[in-house]
């Protein structure tokens, strides 16, 4: 169903614009030709890893590999350097297509660049496989990462995404195509026969310029990015009247920011709640917020096809948008997934997030999961660090979360040296502690564990929930 509809869109779109990037337009017919070229250069089956930024070839390669019956591993743009290598090894990658071959000097796979696939004659797909499988690595782990396998959700997209009766829209893609949000966004636009304006990275002013220039109808933002857009000096003079849908996700949005977004963009703002394992769990629309200010703190009601319940404070989910399972493990089937988030339902079925059951920090421009123990282990490699505790603290104004470290050192050590240790190990800035405190000792619980609750509490005092 999914590949049939994608191919129908690419074949029938003709000269209609599919992608716009840096002033260059790529039509649907051109995109289909690129798919045929890459299809011709790929082997049947195996596992194809894609390590690339936002460019037309990234998603078109995914489609070509799926037509070959290959499993596709999307290497997350926000993953640390050790995690990227671990994911490729754990998935059993046979072919890796990348923009940066030097990042992959010694892996047991064929490493090629996009030009090696696009600079050839194309071939029409011989047939369609019965299903597609895409693997997304979990964020913030080390060693052997969890690899999340998705299949049915792509057929679900084929049922959900249809042409807009109001006419073809224009989607602004900010999130990486190799993350679930960006991947679903660009594929959804293709299934709707719309245009996609691609940004290589995030800049609030560039986003506002793109909305006005291209008359953007649809975009998604994380809370941190929304805050930058709303606070940008050009916001008040920018024309955002073309926007029909602004989706917010990755972390809970501060109520005042949601109210501000509704005031600026109008009744087109909605918020969603999901995980990479289950991308669509709950949602809330602007209409549901009208006249109900208390719902500004809610992530919405459970979407059709999904179920959720609370067990000892933690949210458990199951249903249609679930992953197939973790790579190498049995399929999850009809089983319940523990989300790691603590929450409550009100009498009308609206879900409110309160805290996290696990020691996880949601941070960075992509809303990436950073496991505090992983950062602790990386910092503890420094010869002068005797003990360290890492935890999340609220960002400025209570918006977003920052990585905070408390260090016990055996000698003279600066905060910047601590940050440099994390930066060198992970190769990604969102793992680097924003703040570093030094202490003579870390507080312990009665059973001798580091008492992170005691360390976190002063930072979260006065906040209604311990999640941002």
What is the CA–CA distance across the termini? 38 Å
Instruction: Assign the structural class, choosing from mainly alpha, mainly beta, alpha/beta, alpha+beta, or little secondary structure.
Output: alpha/beta
In the predicted model, the low-confidence regions spanning at least 5 consecutive residues are: none
Shape: globular
The percent range for strand residues is: 25-35%
Average pLDDT for all residues:
89
Describe the sheet with the most strands: 9 strands, mixed
As a percent range, the share of helical residues equals: 25-40%
How many strand units?
A: 25
What is the overall number of helices? 14
Strand order of the largest sheet: 2-1-10-9-11-12-13-14-15
Rg, Cα atoms, Å: 22 Å
Report what the structure shows:
With 468 residues, the chain is of the alpha/beta class. 29% of the residues lie in helices and 25% in strands. The protein has a nine-stranded mixed beta sheet, with helices on both faces. β1 and β2 form a beta hairpin. α9 packs across α10 (255-265). The longest helix is centred in the N-terminal third of the chain and has 14 residues, at 28-41. The protein is globular, with a radius of gyration of 22 Å. The mean pLDDT is 89.
Which features would summarize this protein structure in a list?
468 residues, alpha/beta, 14 helices
């Amino acid at each position: 169903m999914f590949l049939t509809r994608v191919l129908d869109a690419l074949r029938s779109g003709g000269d209609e614009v599919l992608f716009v990037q840096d002033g260059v337009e790529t039509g649907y017919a051109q995109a289909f030709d690129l798919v045929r070229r890459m299809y011709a250069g790929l082997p049947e089956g195996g596992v194809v890893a894609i390590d690339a930024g936002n460019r037309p070839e990234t998603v078109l390669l995914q489609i070509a590999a799926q037509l070959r019956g290959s499993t596709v591993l999307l290497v997350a743009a926000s993953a640390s350097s050790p995690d990227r290598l671990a994911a490729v090894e754990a998935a059993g990658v046979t072919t890796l297509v990348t923009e940066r071959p030097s990042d992959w000097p010694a892996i047991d796979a064929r490493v090629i660049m996009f030009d090696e696939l696009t600079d050839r004659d194309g071939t029409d797909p011989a047939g369609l496989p019965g299903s597609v499988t895409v693997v997304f690595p979990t964020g913030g782990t080390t060693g052997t990462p969890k690899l999340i396998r998705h299949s049915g959700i792509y057929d679900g997209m084929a049922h959900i995404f249809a042409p807009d009766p109001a006419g073809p829209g224009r989607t602004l893609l900010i999130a990486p195509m190799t993350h679930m949000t960006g991947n679903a966004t660009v594929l959804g636009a293709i299934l709707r026969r719309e245009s996609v304006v691609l940004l290589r990275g995030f800049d609030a002013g560039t986003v506002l310029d793109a909305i006005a220039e291209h008359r953007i109808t649809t975009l998604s933002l994380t809370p941190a990015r929304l805050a930058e857009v709303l606070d940008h000096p050009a916001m008040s003079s920018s024309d955002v009247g073309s926007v029909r849908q602004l989706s917010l996700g990755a972390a809970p949005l501060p109520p005042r920011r949601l109210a501000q977004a509704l005031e600026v963009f109008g009744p087109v703002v909605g918020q969603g709640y999901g995980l990479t394992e289950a991308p669509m769990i709950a949602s809330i629309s602007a209409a549901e917020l009208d006249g109900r200010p208390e719902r500004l703190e809610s992530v919405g009601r459970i979407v059709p096809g999904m179920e959720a319940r609370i067990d000892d404070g933690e949210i458990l989910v199951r249903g249609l948008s679930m992953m197939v399972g973790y790579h190498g493990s049995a399929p999850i089937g009809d089983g319940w997934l523990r989300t790691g988030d603590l929450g409550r339902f009100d009498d009308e079925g609206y879900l409110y997030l309160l805290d996290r059951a696990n020691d996880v920090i949601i941070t960075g421009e992509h809303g990436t999961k950073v496991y505090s123990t992983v950062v602790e282990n990386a910092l503890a490699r420094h010869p002068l660090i005797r003990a360290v505790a890492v935890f999340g603290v609220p960002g400025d104004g209570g918006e977003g979360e920052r990585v905070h470290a408390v260090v016990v050192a055996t000698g003279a050590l600066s905060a910047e040296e601590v940050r440099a240790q994390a930066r060198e190990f992970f190769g990604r800035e969102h793992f680097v502690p924003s703040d570093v405190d030094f202490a003579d000792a870390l507080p312990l619980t009665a059973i001798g564990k580091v008492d992170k609750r005691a360390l976190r509490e002063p930072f979260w005092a006065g906040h209604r929930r311990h999640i941002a």
